[in-house]
Write a structure and sequence with these properties.
Layout (H helix, E strand, L loop, with lengths): L1 H20 L4 H13 L5 E8 L4 E2 L12 E7 L1 H10 L12 H4 L7 H15 L17 H15 L3 H6 L1 H7 L11 H15 L4 H9 L5 H12 L5 H18 L4 H8 L7 H14 L4 H18 L6 H24 L5 H17 L5 H11 L7 E3 H34 L7 H8 L3 H19 L4 E2 L9 E4 L1 E10 L12 E5 L11 E4 L8 H9 L3 E3 L2 H7 L6 E6 L5 E5 L5 H5 L3 H5 L18 E2 L14 H12 L8 E3 L1 H8 L2 E2 L4 E2 H17 L4 H19 L6 H15 L8 E7 L15 E5 L2 H13 L4 H10 L8 E7 L5 E6 L11 E7 L11 E5 L4 E5 L5 E4 L7 E4 L9 H17 L12 E8 L2 E9 L4 H5 L1 H6 L8 E3 L5
Parallel strand pairs: 5-12, 7-8, 8-9, 9-10
Antiparallel strand pairs: 1-2, 1-3, 4-28, 6-10, 7-11, 11-12, 13-14, 14-19, 15-16, 17-18, 17-19, 20-21, 20-26, 21-22, 22-23, 24-25, 26-27
Helix pairs in contact: 5-19, 6-16, 9-10, 9-12, 11-12, 13-14, 14-15, 15-16, 15-17, 17-18, 17-19, 17-21, 19-20, 19-21, 28-29, 29-31
EC number: 2.7.9.2
Family: Belongs to the PEP-utilizing enzyme family.
Cofactor: Mg(2+)
């Protein structure tokens, strides 16, 4: 009995330990937040003295001087502490109670700092948020201690040059929130106050939109008139809020004295050319009244600060200059609204100036600005521009807006997504940060230019009647009809339908077939999702955050959606479709695009593990899939750039499928065959397609689950271990490897199948490799894989998986090269996209993308992926965090890519399938600047979409030799 009780006790404590290790569910977090809002102490437990010797004393018993003194503040409730430990959520942070090392030097990408900023924002828009009642909990937070902590924090961080270079945007933004000088974030307070009023009193909504979208000094009069007109209808609380808003607006619109800022710089001791010139520039601006001149001068100063901040020696002085930078940006934002271009020359100048200021405020990295500067620079003596050059300027300007918004999302997106799971208001934080930056005026100016170009070139989007249509741009041509689904939140949580059109913040990494896509963050041009969409003729376009919000009004409606090869976009109610558009959706036109994959030449008798050197392009679809076959071909042509490898051919899979399937009275292959025979009978009997598909998917899931448990034959395992040691140079369990699914139904000339089946990263342990083989064999029978195949192939059931096993290369960065220009550029150009670490660019990361020509290269988009993975020798993956101050690829890398592309174009068409003349999709990476090739396949585009008579008919015809005077009034 004693033994039994002891055992029970052990089990009970084990249960408590496991329970304690679990994350607290979001439903409980939501309950905590509601409780904190109602609690006079909010997230805090009680007030205590915290002494420097580590002791804690009661409020009336302060820390004596002989032990070093201390500070007084609140302690946290136990559940707040638990949230920090279990969920890494930090609510109601008291800075004076936080170690700087924990606040900044954590292992979670400065998450505590970002959560602090997010908490401050939520408090401003939700009446204190979790501090709703605790705002009046006296002594919980001591303002002077928070200020002192903030000064100490910045002096410590700003003493490290590399931190300023790597985290310039984050550190600048944090100055608006972390107390250190008594200043407040007036712009955010103004927006928050107007938001709260409009939510309580709807007639104020138009005024709120004006204050948020285009703040000007005359808004003060607008609000004052509104107050006078509606005063009798407002509650005492709303009257108080309106008066507070007016005071905040006066403070916000009060002009900054450049002379006063210059005087503050005088506090910096020592000789420094930068500060001397800076003071002179401020004094010169103090005498200027012209808005254009002032805005240009402020933009120059912002960029000068960024470029020279590390030339200032003392951290205290760096903090002073960075604070000035915030004040100058605020003034620039206000004065830019006063700069009202009347002709095209002035509009282009304003766009250039605000783009330059984007770099100065940290929204662009300096190397990114250098890459786009020439594209946006129009010389003062230029009289006319061609329409082509004007559209090129527009693309560059739109890129600056997109890159800037992507920087905000890259820095804060993880925390915002996490908080939005339990506090939906968190999502508006990103929008608030963008609106409080130069992006507000820049986006407005770029939109104005887009409208002008659309009018002159006839390249006009017709997306219902939403505003800012110039921000919409087509990526992949095609057309679709279906229910519109606007997804403002996490796309990974959405179960998609193949007959619906989706508007996403970003494309989900594991997208199943859909009718059409629009995304705010397009990921990159060569991700698996983008390639599949391109392959199947799924219309795909990029749009702005504002466009997404405007389309929410159409959520759930039936729409027609088309993207032309020229890049213009049409979306309208399905009831407004013309007869020609309705005819596009006949059954006949849809079936014409499907193809049959030949299976008569598949060799299932090859039951031996092969070396990669034993296969080549001729074996594709016969012995193995095209990944292994084409990589074997590459190994022959580029032996130094391709690793050794093993191939498990179709025959070994087919041999194992002859085993008896447990509980079914037939072998695995017979179960698969019977499933499709039954489906065929159901169709002939008139059963609805949805029911047939449901039956197939249900049986395929049973099959996939069974394959994951299939017994590997002793002969196969023995041969695999022998070949593994002989070819890969070590016993199984000592060499980490990739396992790549390689079916006969991917990488075809007509269908890419990119990313549909399983790839296992950096597997080391023997048992995991063996289980991985079974998992890879099962992956073609997943719902996503089968649905994509079914969308394009007439015989999706005849799938044969082989497996490619290659040793891991822990590359510094990796990506994709397409041997042609995509969307822009020529057939002879290259499109390349790279991300840091392994698996780059293919999974939809916000990758560094270039158009590479014979004589140079153009940055199409910078990297904005905040994290990446590396491949340790111990197996598995290790997560790292990225900063963006340096480009991923260096000029030598781009030259290596250009050279290997030339060799591929020269060598590949003369080998294997010599009849293929198109472009190639190549996966590659760099380790210590050495280029490694991992995969090559045909680059597949949907020619039907590009040549569709209808799409061409609605594509605008480019005006021939059109030039426009820069003095044209707009």
């Amino acid at each position: 009995m004693k033994y039994y009780n002891t055992l029970l006790s052990c089990l009970f404590f084990l249960f408590l330990f496991q329970l304690g290790a679990q994350e607290i569910p979001n439903s409980t977090v939501e309950k905590y937040i509601e409780d904190y809002k109602k609690d006079p102490r909010g997230p805090y437990l009680r007030i205590r003295w915290f002494c420097n010797d580590g002791s804690i004393r009661e409020p009336r018993d302060p820390c004596p001087d002989n032990i070093g003194g201390g500070i007084q503040h609140a302690s946290y409730k136990p559940d707040v502490v638990a949230l920090g430990k279990k969920n890494k959520l930090y609510f109601g942070q008291i800075l004076a109670a936080t170690e700087i090392e924990d606040f900044w030097y954590d292992d979670d990408n400065q998450s505590r700092l970002k959560q602090y900023q997010l908490g401050r924002y939520l408090a401003s828009v939700d009446d204190g948020w979790i501090l709703r009642k605790a705002q009046y909990y006296r002594g919980a937070v001591q303002a002077e201690d928070e200020q002192a902590w903030g000064i100490n924090f910045y002096q410590k961080i700003f003493s490290v040059d590399s931190l300023l270079r790597q985290h310039y945007y984050l550190l600048r933004q944090s100055l608006r929130d972390v107390p250190h000088s008594g200043d407040t974030n007036v712009a955010q307070e103004m927006r928050s106050q107007s938001k709260v009023i409009s939510e309580e009193y709807t007639p104020f909504m138009d005024a709120r939109i004006k204050i948020h979208g285009k703040p000007e000094p005359k808004d003060i009069g607008m609000v004052r008139n509104f107050l006078e007109k509606h005063q009798s209808k407002l509650s005492p609380e709303l009257l108080k809020r309106m008066k507070e808003l007016l005071e905040t607006m006066k403070e916000f619109h009060s002009p900054v004295s450049m002379a006063e800022l210059s005087r503050r710089i005088g506090d910096i001791k020592g000789d420094n050319n930068f500060t001397t010139e800076f003071k002179a520039a401020l004094m010169a601006l103090d005498r200027e009244t012209d808005a254009k001149t002032v805005v240009k001068g402020l933009a120059d100063l912002l960029c000068e600060i960024r470029e020279n901040i590390t030339s200032i020696e003392k951290p205290r002085d760096r903090l002073l200059i960075m604070d000035l930078s915030i004040e100058l940006e605020n003034e620039l934002i206000k004065r830019s609204q006063e700069w009202k271009p009347t002709d095209l020359r002035q509009l282009l100048s304003k766009i250039y100036t605000l783009s330059y200021a984007s770099m100065g405020s940290g929204l662009l990295e300096m190397h990114e600005w250098e890459s786009i500067n020439d594209l946006l620079l129009v010389q003062d003596n230029t009289e006319k521009l061609s329409m082509d050059r004007l559209q090129e300027f527009q693309r560059g300007a739109r890129s600056v807006v997109e890159w800037s918004a992507a920087m905000v999302k890259a820095v804060y997106g993880t925390e915002v997504d996490r908080y939005a799971e339990f506090e939906p208001m968190a999502r508006t934080f990103l929008d608030d940060r963008i609106r409080s930056s130069v992006s507000l005026g820049l986006g407005e100016s770029v939109s104005r230019l887009g409208d002008y170009i659309s009018e002159k070139s006839s390249l006009e989007n017709k997306v219902f009647s939403i505003a800012d249509q110039g921000a919409v741009r087509g990526l992949n041509p095609g057309y679709a009809k279906g229910t519109l689904v606007v997804v403002a939140g996490d796309p990974e949580a959405i179960e998609v339908d193949s007959d619906k059109i989706y508007v996403f913040q970003r494309p989900p990494s594991d997208l199943k077939p859909v009718a059409g896509i629009m995304t705010v963050s397009e990921g990159n041009l060569v991700s698996h999702v983008q390639l599949l969409a391109r392959n199947l003729g799924i219309p795909n376009a990029a749009l702005s955050e504002r466009n997404l919000r405007d389309l929410m009004a159409k959520n759930g409606s039936e729409v027609f959606y088309a993207v032309t090869p020229a890049g213009n976009v049409v979306m309208k109610a399905a009831t407004s479709m013309s007869a020609e558009e309705s005819a596009l959706f006949s059954t006949k036109s849809r079936n014409n695009s499907k193809i049959t994959v030949p299976t008569e030449n598949i060799n299932t008798t090859a039951e031996r593990v092969l070396s990669l050197r034993e296969v080549d392009a001729e074996d594709s679809g016969k012995l193995c899939g095209p990944k292994a076959a084409n990589l074997g071909e590459l190994k022959k042509l580029f032996p130094e750039q391709v690793v050794e490898g093993l191939v498990i051919p179709f025959g070994i899979f087919r041999q194992h499928m002859n085993q008896q399937m447990p509980g079914k009275g037939m072998c695995y292959w017979e179960f698969l065959t019977a499933t499709f025979e039954k489906a065929s009978e159901m169709r002939k009997a008139g059963v609805a397609d949805e029911q047939v598909e449901e039956y197939q998917l249900s049986n395929l899931k049973v099959l996939a689950d069974a394959i994951r448990e299939i017994n590997l034959s002793a002969e196969f395992m023995a041969e695999l271990e022998e070949q593994f040691t002989a070819i890969l140079g070590g016993k199984m369990g000592t060499v980490p490897v990739f396992l790549r699914s390689d079916t006969n139904m991917e990488d075809l000339k007509e269908f890419t199948g990119a990313g549909l089946n399983l790839t296992l990263f950096n597997i080391l342990e023997r048992e995991k490799i063996l289980q991985g083989i079974k998992n890879v064999w099962a992956s073609p029978y997943s719902e996503r894989s089968f649905k994509w195949r079914q969308s394009y192939l007439l015989n999706p059931e005849n799938v044969y998986p082989s497996i490619l096993i290659i040793p891991s290369v822990d590359v510094d960065y990796s990506g994709v090269m397409i041997t042609k220009g995509i969307n822009i550029g020529e057939e002879k150009d290259l499109t390349i996209a790279f991300s840091r670490g392994a698996g780059g660019a293919v999974d939809g990361q916000s990758a560094e993308t270039y158009l590479v020509t014979e004589n140079g290269w153009q940055l199409l988009s910078p990297a904005r992926q905040p994290d990446y993975i590396r491949l340790p020798a111990s197996g598995g993956v290790k997560k790292h965090y990225a900063t963006f101050e340096e480009p991923i690829l260096n000029p030598g890398n781009i030259e290596s890519i250009r050279n290997i592309a030339a060799e591929i174009r020269n060598k590949i068409p003369g080998s294997g399938e010599a009849d293929y003349k198109g472009a190639y999709d190549v996966e590659l990476g760099f380790k210590n600047n050495k280029l490694w090739l991992f995969q090559i396949r045909p680059f597949v585009e949907n020619t039907n979409a590009r040549t569709s008579e209808y799409l061409n008919s609605i594509s605008p015809k480019k005006p021939a030799n059109l030039t426009i005077s820069l003095d044209t009034k707009i």
